[in-house]
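Need residues for this backbone.
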């Protein structure tokens, strides 16, 4: 899909979405960099993005000077009935539940009901993990900073909770930890969790249109979620409050929570400092760091230090609902949005760029490339000007070079992946007919440092989709189109690839080696098509110094 800002083509669409707005901001919206944006510019941006990303509905609020300066309720609550989103439409907040609960926990700490560093089992033993004595080390602080050792969610097949690493030793995002802490809070207060949050957060902050448990009002006002354009058969109807993800809300109501924190409402100075200060540093190549710049974690909030201060943020995704917020507390500036589809992450990357800088350099770059299932930006990485495909997700990501047809010749490019196990696949796609029909030569940098002979054989691979994908080749022609690199680069270093495609053959040379790492016949009958940068499952990638030399006919 082409990502171009073409405002005239959207005039009718904008007329619709603007009629859904309860207010029209006249004062320019200030970005964190100090640039000013007129409301009509943001209106046009939202219309374009909703159309390009096929987002059914959106609830969004922008905060300036500790007040909501811009609010829109746009699009459709339900595509089939064509019921429109309004200011009362509710969305699944998913993991954006967690920072709300974290604030409530600190309120309880200040009241002396709970201690951050006291092992939780001393308050309430947990039968689900009693088989592993290490759980007795887990504290509320570990839960709120995601270093309990729990997985995000337990193995659904066996329903057995496990501890994957020593509690407190490193960061690993976990909803299971919040489930345990929620049980402890309910036990200590003698109240259900919705009541606890109502008393500690919602009532003091004037939050009235947010709910944790299913009720008639929520049934009437909840938007329909869409995953890959389809409405799921199930509707999430939480019967009990779940502090990892059962919150339902909308932008104006959630903005009250953000403004409450900006204005230090409800907590002492020490409590607010404890809530938001850096508690843990994420591993340098964690995908939160590489994709979102979230290098630190406080108690329930991600932290992103930068030239304009520290951004506190969190997102939420249930697949058919996605959401995100970010704020700079000292500047009292931020934004929050909810959408009823799975395109929130892609939308957030563009929105975040606009509201941080007032510019859309990534969209300018997208005029040169057709970007599929990722976002793109220019970034200097390890002293090299690079194009980065980022935003880890399940499917492959491609940045096709627009108006570039590749037949045969030489492709030279510098690449940079990472050492994230099973999450670093990077290379070039060529002979592209569409987004699922192309040939691909790619590397697995996370295997570059491996000493396992079986893993070493899979450092580089060639495949041709859709007929000769990874599983088919591995089953029917194992390792015939994969190879080891004799002198592999470091997983976290730039490396150079020379890909020669000619006379029905493909050869790959790494770091200017004289001998080809891989030399195989082409698998497809295509001999021309699109060419572009490629990343695989849960991967981001950086590319530099691309040169394509076509063979003379």
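Answer:
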């Amino acid at each position: 899909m082409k990502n171009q800002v073409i405002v005239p083509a959207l005039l009718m669409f904008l007329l619709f979405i603007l009629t859904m707005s309860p207010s029209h901001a006249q004062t320019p919206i200030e970005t964190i960099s100090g640039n000013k944006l007129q409301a009509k510019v943001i209106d046009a941006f939202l219309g374009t993005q909703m159309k390009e990303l096929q987002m059914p509905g959106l609830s969004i609020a922008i905060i300036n000077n500790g007040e909501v300066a811009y609010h829109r309720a746009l699009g459709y609550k339900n595509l089939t009935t064509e019921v429109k989103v309004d200011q009362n439409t509710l969305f699944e907040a998913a993991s954006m539940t967690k920072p709300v609960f974290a604030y409530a926990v600190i309120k309880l700490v200040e009241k002396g009901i709970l201690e951050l560093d006291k092992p939780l089992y001393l308050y309430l033993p947990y039968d689900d993990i009693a088989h592993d004595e290490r759980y007795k080390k887990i504290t509320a602080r570990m839960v709120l900073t995601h270093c309990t050792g729990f997985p995000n969610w337990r193995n659904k097949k066996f329903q057995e909770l496990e501890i994957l690493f020593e509690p407190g030793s490193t960061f690993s995002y976990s909803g299971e930890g919040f489930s345990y802490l929620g049980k402890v809070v309910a036990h200590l207060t003698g109240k259900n969790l919705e009541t606890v949050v109502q008393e500690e957060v919602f009532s003091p902050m004037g939050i009235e249109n947010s709910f944790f448990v299913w009720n008639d009002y929520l049934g009437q006002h909840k938007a329909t979620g869409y995953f890959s354009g389809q409405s799921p058969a199930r509707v999430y109807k939480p019967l009990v409050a779940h502090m990892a993800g059962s919150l339902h809300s909308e932008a104006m109501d959630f903005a009250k929570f953000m403004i409450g924190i900006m204005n230090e409402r409800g907590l002492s100075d020490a409590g607010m400092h404890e809530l938001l200060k850096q508690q843990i540093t994420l591993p340098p190549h964690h995908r939160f760091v590489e994709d979102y710049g979230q290098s630190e974690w406080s108690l329930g909030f991600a932290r992103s230090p930068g030239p304009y201060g520290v951004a506190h943020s969190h997102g939420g995704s249930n697949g058919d609902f996605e959401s995100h917020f970010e704020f700079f507390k000292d500047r009292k500036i931020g934004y929050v949005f909810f959408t009823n589809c799975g395109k929130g992450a892609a939308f957030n990357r563009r929105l975040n760029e606009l509201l941080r800088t007032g510019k859309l350099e990534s969209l300018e770059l997208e005029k040169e490339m057709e970007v599929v299932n990722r976002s793109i930006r220019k970034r200097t990485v390890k002293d090299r000007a690079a194009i980065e495909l980022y935003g880890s997700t399940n499917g492959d990501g491609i940045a096709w070079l627009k108006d570039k047809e590749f037949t045969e010749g030489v492709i030279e490019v510098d690449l940079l992946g990472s050492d994230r196990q099973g999450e670093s696949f990077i290379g070039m796609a060529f002979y592209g007919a569409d987004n699922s029909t192309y040939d691909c030569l790619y590397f697995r940098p996370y295997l570059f440092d491996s000493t396992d002979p079986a893993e070493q054989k899979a450092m580089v691979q060639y495949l041709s989709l859709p007929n000769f994908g990874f599983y088919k080749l591995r089953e029917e022609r194992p390792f015939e189109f994969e190879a080891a690199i004799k002198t592999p680069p470091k997983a976290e270093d730039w490396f150079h690839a020379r890909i020669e495609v000619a006379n029905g053959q493909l050869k790959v040379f790494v770091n200017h080696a004289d001998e080809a790492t891989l030399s195989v016949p082409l698998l497809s009958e295509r001999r021309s098509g699109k060419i572009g940068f490629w990343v695989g499952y849960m991967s981001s990638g950086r590319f530099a110094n691309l040169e394509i030399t076509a063979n003379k006919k």
